[in-house]
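Lab channel / #folding
Pinned by the channel admin:
"Please post every new chain as: sequence first, then the structure tokens as a reply. Keep commentary short and put observations after the output so the thread stays searchable."

First post following the new format, from NK:
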Amino acid sequence: MKSSEKKIKFIDLFAGVGGFHFALKGFGECVFASEIDSNAAKTYALNHPKTPLFGDIKSEFNQAMIEGEFDIICGGFPCQAFSIAGYQKGFEDERGTLFFEIAKIAKKHKPKVLFLENVKNLRSHDGGRTFEIIKQTLENLGYVVFTEVLNSATHANIPQNRERIFIVAFLKEKVQNYAAFAFPKPVKLTKKIADCLEKTRQDESFYYRQNSRYFEWLEREVVKFETIYQLRRVYVRENKSSLCPTLTANMGTGGHNVPLVRDAWGVRKLTPRECFNFQGYPKSFKLPCVANSALYKQAGNSVTLPLVKRIAEEIVRVL
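Reply from TO:
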């Protein structure tokens, strides 16, 4: 897209905290956003206050608020139904069927591009049948579908081991140059875990102290600085890859513990801010006054911002 041409318009579905919005805002305007989680919506509104933000995308009223023409539908549609960490029910789970809300909106508005993200396991779920249904649905609507599994550590210069599948679909009747699209190539990982950690003492609530039943255990096991550890039920795991493990939406709940680090003041959990650092969000990114558990969920649900931006650049180049 040449600088002299009209800026793109996009809508942000399953918007979370607005990772796709941050990635695309340099190329155009977000004209509609939808997010059902009230805490995530607070974060989104705080960072994107001018964007019309609505709730449940299944609502006919909310879908009716999508007006006129726009160029791109973007969004990371709910992945729990397809995730290895979940029950893998796919389309049998209501969250899995939300993909068809995207398809319904695409059928009505015919945007030039769909830019979607999900867990790596989407490709292999149910022997590949789930993904084939998604691909066939888009092709039946006239889209040419490109897919790739990319890792934040290899394609975004972010020290987190995070593999996600990206789906980019171009409407053939509106984008004749679609064959020129290519996913970004790998880049050298130069950022380290230390680059994502805060340098000052954090709130006392993040530290394990002597009144914790884990204190002596963690003091003995978590010994290295600038290294990520994970507390399991019967052991402490040191991540020797020099990467943060995949951040998940259920951090801190049901035995899914927040990754640990040692700093000059003791052993502690990563803070929500640090989790967003491991997703590549800028220091200017604002966090609302909500429970830390909600912020951990938002960080785990989010996209890795620099990776989405790199793909967005390739999409815009083709338009």
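NK: The first strand starts at residue 8 and ends at 12.
TO: also worth noting, The chain has eleven helices and eleven strands.
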